[in-house]
Amino acid sequence: MNPWIGIGLALAALILGGGLFGWQGVVFAVSGIVFWLLLQMSRLMRLMKQAGAAPMGSIGNAVMLNSKLHAGMKLVDLITLTGSLGLKQAEETYIWRDPGGDAVEVVLKKGKLAEWRLIRADGSS
Asked: Which residue ranges traverse the bilayer (predicted)?
């Protein structure tokens, strides 16, 4: 979700809660916002725990990963797809390899997928 939408909804909840129910409405809106933030943090921690337990830079099938990638994917979505953290190749370049030797190399710009390429074990790209 776009962060500006979340900020707008939080402000609307605060203003609406304060306007309709006074300080109790503001407290209720703040508790809802904190609960939502805790849910997001819990999701991220569960994802990082799962990715941290897997061997670094490994995936089941590089070709399948290559077919699921699209420009603009967030890093969190990429880690969800791969199930592991990538091996860092350069400043913003990471690579994942499968057991057959095929690999997917991705380039991230500002935390979003900018470009990627499939590297086949037999040398073709």
From this structure: 6-39
